[in-house]
Amino acid sequence: SKKWVVMATAQTPTNIAVIKYWGKRDETLILPVNDSISVTLDPSHLCTTTTVAVSPGFEQDRMWLNGKEISLSGGRFQSCLREIRSRACDVEDKEKGIKIEKKDWEKLHVHIASYNNFPTAAGLASSAAGLACLVFSLAKLMNLKENPSQLSAIARQGSGSACRSLFGGFVKWIMGKDENGSDSLAVQLVEEEHWNELVIIIAVVSARQKETSSTSGMRESVETSLLLQHRAKEIVPKRMVKMEEAIKNRDFSSFAQLTCADSNQFHAVCLDTSPPIFYMNDTSHRIISYVEKWNRSEGSPQVAYTFDAGPNAVLIARNRQVAAQLLQRLLFFFPPNSDTDLNSYVLGDKSILHD
Ligand code: PMV
After folding, report:
1. How far apart are CA 246 and CA 259, in angstroms?
2. How far is CA 318 from the centre of its chain?
3. Does 159 sit in the ligand 1 pocket, CB within 6 Å?
4. Most buried of the four, 35, 80, 271, 293, by CB within 10 Å?
5. Residue 33, helix vs strand vs coil
6. Best of 20, 216, 218, 221 to mutate for ligand 1, by most ligand atoms within 8 A of CB?
7. How far is the CA of 110 from the centre of ligand 1 (A)?
8. What is the CA radius of gyration of the chain?
9. Domain spans of the chain?
10. CA angle 242, 156, 273 (to 5 degrees)
11. What's the predicted TM-score (pTM) here?
12. What are phi and psi of 328, to 5 degrees?
């Protein structure tokens, strides 16, 4: 009968890199030129929820994002679907009398419905959460036996940064050596509880779409920036060791110093690209100067900042007290309804807004 439907749902938060991934050595397989480290956000904020369904009544693979149908024809979606289908296993629901055999998955079509719990137009990275969630929910539906690291290598082919969203806490994406990408995957460094004093605040500087996509930006940097070569070969390997230490020891001073330096170097690589890429704006620069001044006046870092391929600031406060102060100061320097009005998303602790 064509009447049955089997479904699976998953929820995946986005992640923010503290040692940045910038540059691919293989564009199709999405293999990076250096390792990276990120922190996965709390699932109650900036996350994607995806429901996938399979039925003999479905005539083609289809996907909806926030209720609007989008095309699945892109190479990255197709890579993920192909990799997952090739690993699909038998699925049986005895109660409903449904049995899907391994070989059936090649012929069956899926419908995918995905929702972001944050405004898609806010210019906040959504591909990491989205592709990780797509892979995870399909793996659940098709009963894959792969562990999260093995699934991360599939999510990587959807969007590089997505591989790091298969785990919570702090996560390392190992660049790997293989030409086929089998060892380019994510591993968890520490669980979310390990450093739960940290509070992450995202200051939305601009809700505009970025002008240079990460894909074309990376390509131009790999082709033209000598700083990128130096960074990948000499700087990041040493920083990875130090960052892993800082995270394991919950050493905020070292963590903040490395996080800020790595964000600044990533944006320096963008400037070193021909033609140069500008992701930050005047407001981003003002936030950096302000945090630097504050950290220096305290004698040790209280807040770390990091910026991805856009002007929005991701601020990591060492604890709740600092985060509350930071919010007050942001509101003071960027008053609501002024031309530098910020929209803050407090991640990790909602109650802080009401202190
Ligand atoms: O995975 P992509 O193509 O969205 O690239 C992400 C690049 C940065 O966000 C700038 C850095 C990172 O490591 O997430």
Report:
1. 11
2. 21
3. yes
4. 80
5. coil
6. 20
7. 28
8. 21
9. 6-192, 199-354
10. 65
11. 0.94
12. -60, -45
Give the span between the Cα atoms of 10 and 146, in whole angstroms: 16
Peptide bond just before 32 cis, omega within 30 deg: no
The torsion region of residue 322 among left (phi > 0), alpha (psi -120 to 50) and beta comes to alpha
ipTM, two decimals, is 0.99
For residue 119, report the distance from its CA to the centre of ligand 1, in Å: 19
Q: Answer yes or no: CATH 1.10.1740.10 is held by domain 199-354.
A: no
Cβ distance 149 to 132 under 8 Å? no
CA torsion through residues 59, 64, 68, 72, sign:
negative
Q: Does the Cβ of 160 fall within 6 Å of ligand 1?
A: yes
Class of domain 6-192: alpha beta
CA 37 remoteness from chain centre: 10
Number of helical (H) and strand (E) elements in the chain, helices listed first: 9, 17
Token pair of 94, please? 């005895």
Sheet holding 62-65, edge to edge: 6-13, 47-55, 109-116, 62-65, 68-70
- For residue 15, which atom of ligand 1 is closest to its CA? 14
Q: Are 135 and 154 in contact (CB under 8 A)?
A: yes
pLDDT digits (tens, 9 = 90+) for 180-237: 999 999 999 999 999 999 999 988 887 776 778 899 999 999 999 999 999 999 999 9
Which two tokens mark 12? Answer: 């995946």
**What DSSP state is assigned to residue 250?**
T
For 82-92, how does the pLDDT look when each residue is reduced to its tens digit (9 = 90+)?
A: 999 999 999 99
- CB contact set of 70 (below 8 Å; sequence gap of 6+): 63, 64
Of 21, 38, 216, the one to substitute when testing ligand 1's pocket (max ligand atoms within 8 A of C-beta) is 21
> How buried is 140 (Cβ within 10 angstroms: 0-12 exposed, 13-18 middle, 19+ buried)?
middle
